[in-house]
């Protein structure tokens, strides 16, 4: 199990549940937890049809809760301008095809993530041998087949822009997945980190249930390139974010977040890298957007 980086209590963004079923982080950022994972709503309340963006789509079965929250937050029948994906693991694309079809909305992702989103490639096998709890042990049962949203799929531009999110840029943060991205808004130093780092011990079912805030590297059982994952954490720590919403766990903010992130970047090999994983010393890779090898 990964070792946690403790965070001071003042780092936790206290976000009571809103009437729309989300937790507001800023005036135009909110998240909703779907069992083991978070989705993010970007846009001010009342933004209306095509006036907002959904980041990731949760696990299978998340569609109804997402649609209900969107209607309450942005207006009845308000469709997003786009869905933006941090990456395509099963817990981030569970409702993707249903929502893309319902809303007739573009789906933006990194070029290297396309094989897992156009039906052409499965993710590599997980690494349950990392240990740490029930979530890791059960990982061979998690879906890793690709979804096919090729009818709506668009590739994020090389210049770092996020077309449906003016003022934001994407940052390539591979390691957990070859095409994972984080989203960064310089104006207020807001970070949507995906699974580059998380704020709960995602390998442990107990930790996932209680959501005790602490900083961890990416979920170990799906991480396929540990040197790249370390480099990605260094990249995000160098941004010195004011707040971070991660794919798993509660959002954090302030100096305590930055301090913990610097410690994670410094001590990553000791606290985040498991003692055993099929990918230690033999990372899965993708070349020219092709599929990961399947060990």
TrEMBL record:
SMART domains: Lactamase_B
Gene3D superfamilies in UniProt: Ribonuclease Z/Hydroxyacylglutathione hydrolase-like
Pfam families: Lactamase_B
Metallo-beta-lactamase domain residues: 36-248
Protein name: MBL fold metallo-hydrolase
Organism the protein comes from: Methylobacterium adhaesivum
